[in-house]
């Protein structure tokens, strides 16, 4: 379980393509502190398992399912990535509940800079629109953000200078893909209401 508060902007140092998977080596001095085999680290919002760890780098395997459902397949050596370790029990929940299970990918459509913040418009897959509401939470590349405007096939977020400086969203341009995870609470509510409606119809 994560919070969507990115701990550091890491870097992909190597990509090994396998038959039906990829092996990534990533550098992250903060998230590798105390890391061990089997630990979880979110990479651009995708929960990955540490296979190997040496110094300030760790290795993670990514299966075909994850490559197909996320933007990780576009990563290459030198790519910058958002990194976050799982939330420890008893710590403050700074963002919102993030599982590290990507629901789909969007695309940066537009950036509108202003003096103190920047509005970013992102495309939204049709099957996710019902979970995204104005002032609700969404995870973009592992970053917990508040939805400013929710359109029929897009949403916008407002980014403060800290987010622009310390995450991938400070570097991505129109046309670049991003990983999206909607608020899991919305999905549970939908399921429970659906089950209740089915039960009432019987």
UniProtKB/TrEMBL annotation:
The family database entries (InterPro entries) matched by this protein are listed as:
ATP_synth_asu-like_sf (IPR023366), Lumazine-bd (IPR001783), Lumazine-bd_dom (IPR026017), Riboflavin_synthase-like_b-brl (IPR017938)
PANTHER family per the UniProt record, alphabetical: RIBOFLAVIN SYNTHASE, RIBOFLAVIN SYNTHASE ALPHA CHAIN
> Cross-referenced CDD domains, in alphabetical order?
Riboflavin_synthase_like
Ranges for domain Lumazine-binding come to 1-96, 97-193
Q: What is this protein called?
A: Riboflavin synthase
Name its species: Streptomyces afghaniensis 772
Q: What class of enzyme is it?
A: transferase
Q: Which SUPFAM superfamilies does its entry note?
A: Riboflavin synthase domain-like
Q: Give the keywords, sorted.
A: Repeat, Riboflavin biosynthesis, Transferase
Please explain the role this protein plays, according to its UniProt record: Catalyzes the dismutation of two molecules of 6,7-dimethyl-8-ribityllumazine, resulting in the formation of riboflavin and 5-amino-6-(D-ribitylamino)uracil.
State whether it acts alone or in a complex, and with which partners, per the record: Homotrimer.
**Catalysed transformations (reactions):** 2 6,7-dimethyl-8-(1-D-ribityl)lumazine + H(+) = 5-amino-6-(D-ribitylamino)uracil + riboflavin
One GO molecular-function entry: riboflavin synthase activity
| Enzyme Commission numbers on file | 2.5.1.9
Lumazine-binding repeats sit at 1-96, 97-193
Named in its record, the pathway it takes part in is:
Cofactor biosynthesis; riboflavin biosynthesis; riboflavin from 2-hydroxy-3-oxobutyl phosphate and 5-amino-6-(D-ribitylamino)uracil: step 2/2
Q: Which Pfam families match?
A: Lum_binding
């Amino acid at each position: 379980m994560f919070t969507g508060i990115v701990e550091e902007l890491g870097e992909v140092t190597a990509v090994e393509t396998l038959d039906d998977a990829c092996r990534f080596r990533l550098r992250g001095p903060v998230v590798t502190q105390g890391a061990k085999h089997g630990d979880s680290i979110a990479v651009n919002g995708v929960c990955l398992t540490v296979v190997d760890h040496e110094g300030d780098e760790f290795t993670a395997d990514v299966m075909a399912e994850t490559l197909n459902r996320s933007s990780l397949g576009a990563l290459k050596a030198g790519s910058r990535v958002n990194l976050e370790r799982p939330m420890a029990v008893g710590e403050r929940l700074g963002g919102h509940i993030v599982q590290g299970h990507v629901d789909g990918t969007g695309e940066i459509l537009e950036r509108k800079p202003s003096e103190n913040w920047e509005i970013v418009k992102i495309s939204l897959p049709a099957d996710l629109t019902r979970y995204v509401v104005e002032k609700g939470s969404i995870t973009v590349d592992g970053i917990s953000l508040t939805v400013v405007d929710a359109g029929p096939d897009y949403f916008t977020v407002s980014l403060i200078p800290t987010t622009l400086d310390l995450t991938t969203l400070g570097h991505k341009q129109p046309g670049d893909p991003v990983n999206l995870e909607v608020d899991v609470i919305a999905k549970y509510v939908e399921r429970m209401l659906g089950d209740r409606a089915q039960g009432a119809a019987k």
